[in-house]
Amino acid sequence: MARELENRWNAALERVAAIEERIKQHDTATALRPKIDEAALMALAHDLPAVWNAPGTDAKIKQRITHILISEVLIDLDGGTNEAIVTVHWVGGRHTELRVARVRCGRYPEGRQISPVEAVRKLGGQWPDREVAITMNRMRCKPADGKSWTTVRVRELRERLGIAVFDPAAERSETVSVDQAAKRLGICGGSVHKLIRDKVLPATQLAPSAPWQIPVAALTTDAVRQGIQAIIDRRPRNYRVLQGDRTLRLPGF
């Protein structure tokens, strides 16, 4: 028993010596560190927006700043206002709450809901069955069982209604989609939609939420050229630099 107690005592003394050595090393390292200048630290904090927005500050530095300043970010949804509530917990105990509007997407216009039969009568044969299925799902045009539309289900309904299959070789006016038109015109898809809303660029939809059909011949009209030039004139001079900007905007900066 005496030998066991002696062994335990020696082990405890070794642990105490190790802890004392660690404390000594910590005190030595702390003494070698430069003293914190509170005024300089506060000046650096006030200069943070300038450092963050400086052209020479790359993404790696901004990531380090973000990890230093932000403890966590919580996101909640407010169904009543259709907003996302973003709560930023800063290191030091402060909090910032932001409300960001959620984008309403994939919703069929209210008061214009159509049945699956009517949708297939309008779209069937005009588009491939796969495109019709995608469009009907986007329109929230659900069948009686509530399941999503597939190529097979659209084909079965189209055949029951006696609608011919889509024939890509059939003679029809040459049209392009919004993405294809944007690529040809050298603008973004949002600008193409704006030209369509302003009735500068003629386009048709077989049904709301269906793909836009833009005549190829309409892309070279004078009205479209003037509309594109107006879009280009509204761009900032450094828009090409801004296109590659993926900067995280911190609240208040």
Could you characterize what this model shows?
There is one protein chain. By secondary structure, the protein is mainly alpha-helical. The protein has four domains: 1-30; 57-104, no CATH class; 118-160, no CATH class; 175-234, Multidrug-efflux Transporter Regulator, Chain: A, Domain 2 (Orthogonal Bundle). The protein is 47% helix and 11% strand. It has helices spanning 2-32, 38-46, 48-53, 59-69, 116-123, 129-138, 151-160, 178-185, 189-197, 222-234, 239-243, and strands at residues 70-78, 83-90, 95-101, 175-176, 214-215.
Compile the SSE list and pairings.
Elements: H1 2-32, H2 38-46, H3 48-53, H4 59-69, E1 70-78, E2 83-90, E3 95-101, H5 116-123, H6 129-138, H7 151-160, E4 175-176, H8 178-185, H9 189-197, E5 214-215, H10 222-234, H11 239-243
Antiparallel strand pairs: 1-2, 2-3, 4-5
